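Many introductory courses stop at the sequence. We go one step further.
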Amino acid sequence: MIRIGIIGSDNSHALAFSKLANLPEEDGNYLYDDVRVTSIYGLDKERTIEVAKEGKIETIVNHPKEMLSTVDAVMVVFRHGNLHYEYALPFVEAGIPTWIDKPFTIQPDETRKLIEAAKKTHTLLAGGSTCKYCPDVLLLQKEFNFLHQQHSVISANFNFPGELTSPYGGIYFYGGHAIEIMTTVFGKNPISVKTDVHCGNLIALFKYEDFAVTIHFAEVSDFFATIYAKNKVITHPISIATVYRQGFQKYVDALKRGQMPEDFDSLLRPVLLLNALEEAIRTKNEVPFSNLSVK
């Protein structure tokens, strides 16, 4: 049995992941016979009790260190990315596989320190946005790659929520989803970003070597992407209805194989891109990207 501990109860992800492991599906069968969320820690006592009750989690701990000897893996899912490093590091240093929600961290140096610790202890480290596993995102990736190989892509755009004034780190809170959708579909190597904020809405233009991607951070419930090619225009919806399941499955598969689902660069790069995006918003300048790989 793989015993998973949840650290952070304020995010809806805590309950979603717990239900996937601990509650039977409509047919009465469990999604996993050998995986359970067994422990949870949260800063808000009432919310933690609520998640434990609804998610059928047996144990509420008073401090995460109580999990060190009772779980086989953890998921750090606090809403605010500034909390991730301090709560994840002890588990990584202890050699316990660790999944960290988006944004992985807000400070790039914190991601680098987690990576260094994971390398030193040979610990499985994973996380970020589950939207990168969305079937619609993977379909868009396939369609883009086909057109790009034909040297036919002109530009692209898509929309996703992004709160400039979120109490959970501003653009970092939802922005991590948009960034990882972009890097999954269009590639990991944009060369710069420039932004405009009008009527409270953020528009970001990410330049690649031979095309550009515009992200509209609009607070709407439906998401679409459009790819403009020389002889074809593709518009496709992006449904994220099943991403909790796809993300959790990816982590479970990684735990069973004992192998990270992505490389370390894929954990650090979105943090660097988010930092550049935030700088572009703050300074109103076009910000070039540099040092976008793990050193």
